[in-house]
Amino acid sequence: MNSIQKINSINQKELASNTPYKASWHYDYRDTNYIYIGNVPNELQERDILTIFSQYGVPTHINMVKDRETGKHRGFAFLKYADVRSCVLAVDNFNGVTVRDRKLRVDHTYYKLRDDEKEDDYLVDYSEADRELEKERRNRKKISGNDKKLLVYVPGSNEEEKKGNGEIDEEFKDPMADYLAKKDNDKAESESGHRSHRSHRSHRSHRSEGSHRSHRSHNSENKDDDSGRRHRSHRSHRSHGEDESRNSASRNSERNKDSSTEDRDRSPRR
Any idea where the domains of the chain sit in the sequence? Predict the structure, then answer.
């Protein structure tokens, strides 16, 4: 238990300080792909261990140490990954995990074979797993092949449902058909009346605009007439004033002539 807590404590410190891989304690075990798995429940078998630890890599070898007398495993195992990085992930994530009321101890290790052992003796055999997968595929195909397609009922497709005039029997007639048809007709009539009302309003608006334009044209013409009249009156007034001015100048000239004549007559002759 102390080993489990110690490993977790080191991992938490490195995680908090964001320790790089080369400075981590995992880097010291970069030359081994083996991990030690301890405190394994008695109910677990090799296939169970492989299923659990294959979440972080591909196990290639496993040795669950067994008792020679009973043939049962002794509660620990050695597992080899294809990639050393999978060992780091397994130690960080599975150490201290509870399985069947037991906390697993997972750590790096240098596994050494005995003189009478070969590494291939503990090679993971995936042929059985492949056979089980193939068996599952066959069962799925068999089940899918036995599936029967359900017939879809189409009203009027059965000859017994049809009458002599080609109509569907009342027993199979949709009870909502008449209501829906009536609803569609009412909707169509409502839309038609709405369009007619909009057309009438458009016509009235057009007439109103025409009347308004005619009124504005009439006002414009009246304004033009008034302007023309004022202009003619002004010209007439100006012409009259000019005539009076010329007449006045003529009268003054005649008066001056008469006055000069009288003066000459009155002056004494020499």
Answer: 2-133, 149-219
